Each structure stands twice: as structure tokens, then as C-alpha cells.
UniProtKB/TrEMBL annotation:
CDD domains: AdoMet_MTases. Residues 170-319 form the Methyltransferase small domain. InterPro entries: DNA_methylase_N6_adenine_CS, N5-glutamine_MTase, SAM-dependent_MTases_sf, Small_mtfrase_dom. GO terms for biological process: methylation. Pfam families: MTS. Residues 1-29 are annotated as: Disordered. SUPFAM superfamilies: S-adenosyl-L-methionine-dependent methyltransferases. GO terms for molecular function: nucleic acid binding; protein-glutamine N-methyltransferase activity. This is Methyltransferase small domain-containing protein.
Length: 382
């Protein structure tokens, strides 16, 4: 049974209802009302329908669909929310506006045929990008064009990779895996003094929430004998394995099966770069950014003492963006360290260099401009 149905306009196909399965990475439900649209549809009419919750199944020119998506985006740009009374309120309004934007833009749909191809005029070949993001094709599937553009962008990044100066190599992020485009936190891990027991051929480190595997690779290149990497996301585990192999580090970095945060046993160094903002992710792609109720942060802290060798250290990489947004206080963070029986050995700070930190048009600009990323060196209190 198809998840969504529509009626083909008379003259193209025999006017019979058509359908497809539905896929949405953000878990958006299948739209209940779907109308067929093509290049004759005016942006204002499309915007009205999309705002009312009617999905537009695109049958025109692929480039025309991209133009329409841009036109819808321009209309949504006019709805910039007013700043709230507090930074936290501004952040929540910003997220609400982003959610509304995603829902409206997500109403422009395209159909991926049974081999993941697009049967639209001037459409690119998206089959490989879709295999990478969704797996092998199974059936005719409707997706939002906006999501598909993300899948295509991710494919390009995966091919090209992200240069990591600390590795002297590129890391290749997969779709839905946190990409190390913000180099400052990688540099912190590349330069903080390693615990003596880790920097030996028999030394062990854990990298919790490894994502692309970038920090595990940096530790291995710094001379840690064996790095065990974990992640709750199967996409991240596959991506980390791919990067470890490309870098020739398969003998030194083991990407663990399963989704447990901590591997078995103890290590001289445990590194954790959890998502930095305590909020609920709304899609798989956001799982590297939002940590609901700081669950991963708390699990890292409470498990640390039981997983460290004597004189071992835990390195928490986290920015203070959540503090500037009023989502967490510095005291909350220090209290969480103390509650887990941990003391601070030292802290190394870096200023972000990414372009959003310098964009005054960003509604969160003040918080981003003040942001500092820190590597907290933690050890159990005696
Ligand atoms: C901010 S990203 C960091 C990725 C990588 N370590 C880096 O520094 O680029 C956080 C990672 O933690 C993973 N993650 C989130 N919650 C988790 C959990 N409860 N257990 C294990 N991994 C988790 C996410 O899938 C994501 O890959």
C-alpha cells in the first residue's frame, strides 16, 4: 500500500490516482493532501498551499522545482521572529521558526523511482547519493526536495572530504553524521597534553560519540596505542569505519559494534564531544547538535570514574553556546562534574572560527560571537 496518493492530471497519464511510499528523515508524517504541480504553478499559490499543509508533487522541470523552493524560502525569510525577552526565549522562537520553515519547504515533493532515479526534466543523477543516504533502492518513494538537496550536498562532502590540519588528511563525512567543519575543537584534542599512560603503544583511549571518527584518528596519530570508538548512530559507526580505513588506522582504532556509550573495560583517556545544546533533535541530522536533557553529557560524566585507569583523564569537549543561550549555566556544568565525583585538572579554550560566528544577520549572533569552545580535563576526585 502506498503511503501517499494523488491524482494525475488528465492528459498526462490517464487521470488515475497514483501513489508512492513516503520517507522523511525528520519523521514528518506522510502528507494527507497531495496535488500535482509543475512549472506553471506560481510561487504565491504554491506558498499558500504549502502553508495550508497541501503537498506539491513536482512533475515539471527539476531546475524549476529548485527555483520554486528558493521562492518559498524567500517568503519564509520575511517571517523572522522577534527577539524574545531572554536569550532562551529567542532561541526557542528561532527553533520554532526553523520548524515552521522546514514544514512548509518540506511540502514540495519529488518521487524517487524504483532505482532511486528522478524522472524529471534536467534532473541530475541522484542514485549514488540516495544509496549512500537511504541504502539500496527498494520501491518508488516520495521525499521532500529539500531533504533530497541535503542528500545531494552530503554526497558531495563525502566525495570531497573536510581537510583536518591536525591529521594532515581529509575526513569524509557521511549523510547524517556530524561533520568536523569547526576545526577549533579538533585542534584542542590535537594539542592538549596526553596522560602519560595513554601515549604508549599499549595505551588505550575511548572516543565516545565518535561521529566521523575524527578525534579517534587524531588520538591514534598522536601515539595512543589503541582507540575504541563508540556511537549510538549506525551511520556514524559506518562513517568512522570508512575514515579509519582510509587513514590506514584499522589496526589502531576499533569502531565498536552496538550503541553502548562506554566500551567494556578502562582507558587512560576518555574523550567525549557530546552535542553541545540541551534540546530535542528533530531529525537524524540534528543528533550531533542537540542532546535532549543533556543525556549524553550526564552519561559520560557519571560513567567516567568507573572507566578510567589510575591517573587517567576524561576530556570533555563542549562550547559555552548553551550558556549564552540561557539553556544551561556554568554552575550547572560544574555541579554535574562534582556530582559525578570529578575535579577539573585544567581547561583549554578556543574561539570558534566558523563563519556563523561572524554573521550579524544570524538571530543567535550575540551568543555565537561570544562562544568559547573548551576542552575540560577531568579526573576523579581523590
Ligand atoms: C557533536 S557529535 C561529535 C562527533 C565527533 N566525536 C566529533 O568530534 O566530530 C556527537 C556524537 O555523539 C553521538 N551520540 C549522541 N548521543 C549518543 C549516545 N547516547 N551514545 C553514543 N553516541 C551518542 C552522535 O551520534 C554524534 O555522532
Amino acid at each position: 500500500m502506498p503511503d501517499i496518493r494523488w491524482t494525475e492530471p488528465a492528459g498526462q497519464e490517464p487521470g488515475a490516482p497514483s501513489g508512492a511510499h513516503w520517507h522523511s528523515e525528520s519523521g514528518a508524517p506522510a502528507p494527507r493532501r497531495v496535488t500535482v504541480a509543475d512549472d506553471r504553478m506560481k510561487a504565491d499559490a504554491a506558498y499558500r498551499l504549502a502553508c495550508e499543509g497541501t503537498a506539491l508533487l513536482w512533475r515539471g522541470d527539476y531546475q524549476g522545482a529548485r527555483q520554486l523552493l528558493k521562492a518559498l524560502g524567500r517568503r519564509l525569510d520575511r517571517l523572522t521572529p522577534k527577539p524574545g525577552a531572554t536569550p532562551a526565549e529567542t532561541f526557542h522562537r528561532h527553533r520554532q521558526a526553523r520548524g515552521h520553515r522546514a514544514r512548509v519547504l518540506g511540502m514540495l515533493l519529488v518521487v524517487l523511482e524504483e532505482d532511486h532515479s528522478l524522472a524529471l526534466r534536467r534532473a541530475p543523477d541522484v542514485r549514488q547519493a540516495c544509496v549512500e543516504a537511504y541504502g539500496p533502492p527498494e520501491r518508488r518513494t516520495a521525499v521532500s526536495l529539500r531533504e533530497l538537496l541535503g542528500v545531494i550536498g552530503a554526497h558531495e562532502w563525502r566525495k570531497k572530504g573536510v581537510e583536518i590540519p591536525a591529521l594532515g588528511a581529509r575526513i569524509h563525512p557521511h549523510y547524517g553524521v556530524f561533520s568536523p567543519v569547526r576545526g577549533e575543537y579538533v585542534d584542542l584534542v590535537a594539542t592538549a597534553p596526553l596522560p602519560a599512560a595513554a601515549a604508549r603503544p599499549e595505551g588505550t583511549a575511548f572516543d565516545l560519540g565518535t561521529g566521523t571518527g575524527v578525534l579517534a584518528a587524531v588520538l591514534a596519530r598522536r601515539g595512543v596505542g589503541r582507540v575504541l570508538a563508540t556511537d549510538s548512530s549506525p551511520r556514524a559507526l559506518a562513517c568512522a569505519r570508512d575514515n579509519v580505513e582510509r587513514l590506514g588506522l584499522t589496526g589502531r582504532v576499533r569502531v565498536e559494534e552496538g550503541g553502548a556509550l562506554y566500551p567494556e573495560g578502562r582507558a587512560a583517556l576518555v574523550v567525549c564531544n557530546p552535542p553541545w545544546l540541551p534540546a530535542r533533535p528533530t531529525s537524524a541530522v540534528e543528533q550531533g547538535v542537540y542532546d535532549p536533557d543533556s543525556a549524553m553529557l550526564k552519561a559520560f560524566l557519571t560513567g567516567l570514574a568507573d572507566h578510567l585507569e589510575p591517573a587517567g583523564e576524561g576530556w570533555l569537549i563542549i562550547s559555552d553556546l548553551a550558556e549564552h543561550l540561557g539553556l544551561r549555566t556554568r554552575d550547572d556544568l560544574l555541579a554535574a562534574f562534582a556530582a559525578a565525583g570529578l575535579g577539573v585538572v585544567d581547561r583549554h579554550d578556543a574561539k570558534p572560527r566558523h563563519p556563523r560566528a561572524f554573521d550579524p544577520g544570524d538571530p543567535l549572533h550575540a551568543a555565537r560571537a561570544a562562544e568559547v569552545t573548551s576542552l575540560w580535563r577531568l579526573a576523579p576526585l581523590a
